[in-house]
Amino acid sequence: xxxxxxxxxxxxxxxxxxxxxxxxxxxxxxxxxxxxxxxxxxxxxxxxxxxxxxxxxxxxxxxxxxxxxxxxxxxxxxxxxxxxxxxxxxxxxxxxxxxxxxxxxxxxxxxxxxxxxxxxxxxxxxxxxxxxxxxxxxxxxxxxxxxxxxxxxxxxxxxxxxxxxxxxxxxxxxxxxxxxxxxxxxxxxxxxxxxxxxxxxxxxxxxxxxxxxxxxxxxxxxxxxxxxx
Length: 229
Ligand SMILES: [Zn+2]
Hints:
Layout: E1 11-15, E2 18-22, H1 24-33, H2 40-67, E3 71-78, E4 81-87, H3 94-119, H4 130-153, H5 161-173, H6 178-201, H7 207-228
This protein binds zinc ion.
């Protein structure tokens, strides 16, 4: 199944030089992650917060790449998160690739910093009015999506942004072995984190994510072996 395929329900718009497309599964998956029994409002707040945060994350990558002379191709939000496509018009240096990768998560940290600043005059919320409850939920969602996911995204695991940073750092050491090594580190870390997760929370639906990352890296490892050895 192609999760990135076009559908008649896509939301399309154009922003800062990039055509943006939002696949309907983006909203469905985000509302599911924000699932609270009987609380449709929180699911909507979660989907909206995730939309703004992941969109700006991709623009973090995209605008830095554009500033480095890449041609903007498009930004896609879909069931697995976000993707930013751009076309380098020249060979990008490793440090430039690293800066582009870091620009995503650091945009999230900056965005949460901005939310935190805006909330300062409002905190602590004294009354539990409906508006205050929405504002509190939104603040918590923005913390979770921008700070918690932002830190996870920096883990040295492919294809997360931290994994791409690790790969480009390893290219300084050995360009031919970098992908193989990056896949091995990713496999080891996913296994360790997966075991820690099961020990702490027991088996749960989040293990699908670990399985996906493990499978993707075993594939990358096998591919890099067959290419370079
Ligand atoms: Zn990213």
